[in-house]
Amino acid sequence: DVKVTQSSRYLVKRTGEKVFLECVQDMDHENMFWYRQDPGLGLRLIYFSYDVKMKEKGDIPEGYSVSREKKERFSLILESASTNQTSMYLCASPPPGQGAQEQYFGPGTRLTVT
Amino acid sequence: GQQLNQSPQSMFIQEGEDVSMNCTSSSIFNTWLWYKQDPGEGPVLLIALYKAGELTSNGRLTAQFGITRKDSFLNISASIPSDVGIYFCAGQLWNQGGKLIFGQGTELSVKP
User: Fold this and answer.
1) In this structure, are residues A21 and A75 in contact, taking their beta carbons and an 8 Å threshold?
2) For a Cys-Cys bond, which of A98, B72, B89, B98 suits B103, CB 3.0-4.6 Å?
3) pLDDT digits over B75-90, tens only?
4) Cβ–Cβ of A48/B48 closer than 8 Å?
């Protein structure tokens, strides 16, 4: 079974802090994604990566950056956390191939910025 | 950008009832997916649809890929308490490396 793990289930940070959210997958997948989930808005794509050191902006990249130094690890960085970044953050990794439909999700990190 | 409209936003039903939810899009998709998210967990894939008109079942769940490729529905028959959760539709284009566009979610509550 594919495993996608996220470093923390719950985080509380202060406004202005630098925040790192880590995601690790154990199946040697090339593609990895970061979403944020908010009530009534569904999941929105922040950034994604097709390979090591490659990154692409999603639909809402403002206020975020990412790092992919190793294939198994995809980090989401909040350079200066703000209260409107309080959300559930989900990492996902699909297997290779056309469509890559079975996007495996991690359990999520619920971030609160005070 | 592409958007999906999912309805209803929430449902509160009695155990044993059937449930129906749907998604519509302003754009066409190559694949439609339905996910369920249990509280405190990430979404889990329920059904994937690959062809316009396709009707697929997974136990008590049935989903269809609309003929226009701009919509999909999910039905749950004879609901049980463990069906509680948030259901998401998602559309995908094959040339975008796995990128998904999600609906807003339907929160389902089942009263025993």
Assistant:
1) yes
2) B89
3) 999 999 999 999 999 9
4) no
